[in-house]
Structure prediction request, 74 residues.
Amino acid sequence: MKIPSATKSILWDVDPARLDQHKDKQFLITRLADKGSWQDIVWLRKKYSLAEIKRSVRHSRNVSPKTKNFWRIM
Prediction:
């Protein structure tokens, strides 16, 4: 999976080259939605639907309340 080079620092604990867009969807969405920059959000929106992002963020325990509120409003 091609992940932007600036995003790789957020994924410090995994090998970005081994991530699968479908299998690791929950991990990618929650990590980038919570810790990512605006460019990461734009990248997420290109890869996943708004509904998928909202659902992943809403059901994750690893996302801050501030991030959950942002995606709830979106």
Q: What stands out?
A: Residues 57 and 68 are 6 Å apart (CA to CA). Residues 22-73 form one domain.
